[in-house]
Write a structure and sequence with these properties.
By secondary structure, the protein is α+β, with helices and mostly antiparallel strands. The chain has six helices and four strands; from the N terminus they run αααββαβαβα. 39% of the residues lie in helices and 11% in strands. It has a four-stranded mixed beta sheet with strand order 2-1-3-4. It is globular, with a radius of gyration of 18 Å. 27% of the residues are buried.
Length: 148
C-alpha cells in the first residue's frame, strides 16, 4: 500500500525506465512529462480512477496500460514494475492520461502543457496477422476428437 504520491513515483519510474530502453529517446524527457502530470496523476490515483482507466504509454511497439489496485485486493496481487520490453526500437513516445468526467479540464490542461502527454484515447495496439486470433483452433480440435 502506497500513498498517491508514492504510487505516482513508482508509475513515473516504470514509464521512464521503459522509455530509457531506446537509444533514440531520453529518460529525462519521460521524467519531465511525468513530473508535469504529477498533480493530476495523484488526483486520478486518490479518486480511484486508475483502477478502471489506465495511463497508457505508447512507445514504438510498446503499448503499456498502467492501472492501480487498492484495498484488500492490493495485498493479494503481485506488482509488475519491471520496464516493459520492446521499447528499444522506439523513436517516439506518448503518455495517454485518462480523462474521467470530474477531472477532464485538469487533465486536458496538463496534456496541453507538455508535448509527450495526451488526453486523447490511445491508439489500438499494433496486431500482426500471424499473431492475431485464438491460440487454439477449437473447431479443428472438436473435429479431430469427433473423428476418433
Amino acid at each position: 500500500m502506497r500513498s498517491a504520491s508514492g504510487t505516482w513515483a513508482v508509475i513515473s519510474d516504470l514509464v521512464a525506465n521503459t522509455v530509457a530502453q531506446s537509444s533514440a529517446l531520453s529518460r529525462d524527457e519521460a521524467v519531465q512529462a511525468m513530473s508535469a502530470a504529477e498533480a493530476v496523476g495523484r488526483m486520478l490515483i486518490a479518486a480511484g480512477h486508475l483502477q478502471q482507466h489506465p495511463i497508457t504509454l505508447v512507445a514504438g511497439k510498446v503499448h503499456c496500460e498502467i492501472t492501480t489496485v487498492s484495498g484488500t485486493a492490493a495485498l493479494t496481487l503481485e506488482e509488475n514494475l519491471s520496464p516493459v520490453p520492446g521499447a528499444a526500437g522506439a523513436d517516439d513516445f506518448t503518455i495517454h492520461l485518462p480523462s474521467p468526467a470530474p477531472l477532464q479540464e485538469q487533465v486536458q490542461e496538463v496534456a496541453d502543457g507538455h508535448a509527450r502527454l495526451s488526453d486523447a484515447v490511445p491508439p489500438a495496439p499494433e496486431a500482426k496477422a500471424a499473431n492475431s486470433g485464438p491460440l487454439i483452433d477449437r473447431e479443428a480440435l472438436r473435429r479431430a476428437v469427433t473423428q476418433r
